[in-house]
Amino acid sequence: MQAPSHPFLAMVAGETSGDLLASLVLQGLQADFPDLHAAGIGGPRMAAHGFDAWWPSERLAVHGYSAELVRRIWGILRIRKQLVQRLTARKPQLFMGIDAPDFNLGVEERLRANGIKTVHFVCPSIWAWRPERVEKIRRAADHVLCIFPFEPALLAQHGIAATYVGHPLANVIPVEPDRGAARRKLGLAEEGEVLAVLPGSRASEVGYIAKPFFQAAAMLLRARPSLTILVPAVPALRARIDALAAECGILDRIKILDGQSHLALEACNCTLIASGTATLEAALFKRPMVISYHMHPISWRLMKRKQLQPWVGLPNILCQDFVVPELLQDAATPQALADAVAQWLDAPVRDPSRLALLEQRFYDLHLELRRDTPKLATDAIQKILAA
User: Fold this and answer.
1) How many CB atoms lie within 10 A of CB 245?
2) What is d(CA 359, CA 374) in angstroms, rounded to the nearest whole number?
3) Other C-beta atoms lying within 10 Å of the C-beta of residue 48
4) What are the DSSP calls for 38-82, one per residue?
5) pTM, entire model
6) What is the dihedral of CA 70, 75, 79, 80, to 10 degrees?
7) Strand (E) or helix (H) holding 120
């Protein structure tokens, strides 16, 4: 059977990262289907490819078990109900949910029950925690597009069809980062020690993580007065970050950036970083790091109970080893953080082989994740449409 020449593709991307992934898929599909109509929930990158956003992505951008989620849950559920009704009536050839599994898997399950083909892009991290989600994925998705190479085999064990399409960040970040050029762009001297401090991009993360990070930074500055510290800040959280830096007595000793996290990672010798996607970005920039995280004690106990691997940070999970230190929850004291960072800053002289081994492992990881994501995703989708 041939794929339809004028397909209607429905998509939902709930975050900035999902907007990027969806835009790559649209870019690939439009090369083969110039008359493609795509609609649903999306962001500005998708809109640049002609996507018809019935609702903007930010309507779904709520994280964790927060008061914000409680306030907005009914509005999100109402959007999901209206979306399912609209798509059930219009019958797209395919629905693709991009990440946002708490929202998208429910949509996919309902649409699939109504005869609509479904694809989920970004496998939920069933290999890290919440393994019970695999049953939900099996009911919801005809096919899963995976960004990590080990995921298709894992899903196959549960009877779920999947394709590895690579991680788009591996194509965005250069295989050979240019530290000198990044420093020149930031107005920094090309020599000297630079530490990038990334305390998270969400208000809840900054609330728990930024203060111990800045206290650790204060200790490092006392021991290394010439150290340059870069802090990429989400514009909406800049005032909070400024206030916490001032409280820790370092506001006038650090350089707070408006975003520019990639530039900071490229420029630095080492990063103190909150667990999340940013740790993978740091690995792709081949930078040593200290991974940390802190959350509400109840949330921590719930997460630990469902954790399946000894690692939390993505670089360690992907390397299947503690290639970089993780200091989590009560272990994330300012002194422990400062000591771990100091070990990396001293490594070029005291332990150069450790640094070289880390950079090689991150280089190999980069090549493994670097694929032609738009083409691989498009090829998989065309096969599903033609089936």
Assistant:
1) 25
2) 28
3) 12
4) EEEEE-HHHHTTT-EEEEEGGGG---SS-HHHHHHHHHHHHHHHH
5) 0.84
6) 30
7) strand 117-121
Nearest to 148 by CA among 164, 172, 171: 164
Cβ-contact 352, 276 below 8 angstroms: no
Take residue 384 and report the two structure tokens written for it: 């599903």
The band of 204, judged by pLDDT with boundaries at 50, 70 and 90, is confident
Cα separation values, 246 from 156, 209, 218, 252, 360, Å: 51, 15, 11, 8, 38
Whole-number Å distance between alpha carbons of 264 and 267: 5
Q: pLDDT tens across 345-373, in order?
A: 999 999 999 999 999 999 999 999 999 99
Instruction: Return the amino acid letter for 80.
Output: R
How is residue 131 annotated by DSSP? Answer: T
Calpha distance 58→41 (Å, rounded): 9
Residue of 197, 322, 345 whose CA lies nearest to 265: 197
271-to-215, 228, 334 alpha-carbon distances in Å:
15, 12, 15
- Could you tell me if 83 and 103 are in contact, meaning their C-beta atoms sit under 8 angstroms apart? no
**What's the farthest any 2 CA atoms get from each other in the chain?**
69
* First and final C-alpha spacing in the chain: 6
Measure the CA angle with vertex 109, ends 163 and 64; round to 5°.
85
Query: pLDDT per residue over 123-170, tens digit each?
Result: 988 766 677 788 999 999 999 999 999 899 989 999 999 999 999 899
Other CB atoms within a 10 A radius of the CB of residue 133 amount to: 17
Task: Tell me the pLDDT tens digit for each residue of 25-68.
Answer: 898 888 888 899 999 999 999 999 999 999 998 887 654 444 55
What CA–CA distances, in Å, run from 64 to 70, 100, 124, 259, 334?
A: 10, 12, 15, 22, 25
For residues 207 and 197, the answer to whether their CB atoms sit within 8 Å is no
What is the sign of the dihedral through the CA atoms of 379, 145, 8 and 109? positive
Q: Considering just the CA atoms, what is the radius of gyration of the chain in Å?
A: 22
